[in-house]
Amino acid sequence: MAFRVDTYDPELFTAGVWEEFQGGRFKIAYHGNTDYRQALSDLGKRYRKRYGDELTPEQSDEMHAEAIAMGLLKDWEKVEATDQDGKPVDLEYSVENATAALLANLDLVNFVVRRSHDLSRFKRDRDDEPAKGE
Q1: What residue segments make up the domains of the chain, in order of their start?
Q2: Rounded distance, CA 69 to CA 67, Å?
Q3: Rg for the chain (alpha carbons), in Å?
Q4: What domain of life (predicted)?
Q5: Helix, strand, coil proportions of the chain in percent (round to 5)?
Q6: How far apart, in whole angstroms, are the C-alpha atoms of residue 51 and residue 61?
Q7: C-alpha distance across the termini of the chain, in Å
Q8: Distance CA 134, CA 109 (A)
Q9: Could you tell me which residues are beta bridge partners of residue 26?
């Protein structure tokens, strides 16, 4: 079998692929996509301008969570928060909500980052090859 130059669907690298996690659904993009790299660059400049060259661990965590929300975690479904009355309410996806969710849930950060590195998720569906595995 020859090397395939068209193994992956480049649109999925940035658009993302849906994944299930702890009862929710999360649309996760490839870690090397341009949105994520641009977010890291822009946020790095903004944070250095605001805080200087040495970020505290908390500032670094916040910057990283925001970059993930901007470039890797593209959308979600079945995600809830607790309202003022202590009742669960649907939480709409936004970069701000995603950043807050990531800062509050290290397991979500780890899941998103781990899945963003799995290239098999971004393979083209082909009639002559399996879409996953190999």
Answers
A1: 17-122
A2: 5
A3: 17
A4: Bacteria
A5: 50, 15, 35
A6: 14
A7: 12
A8: 27
A9: 19, 76
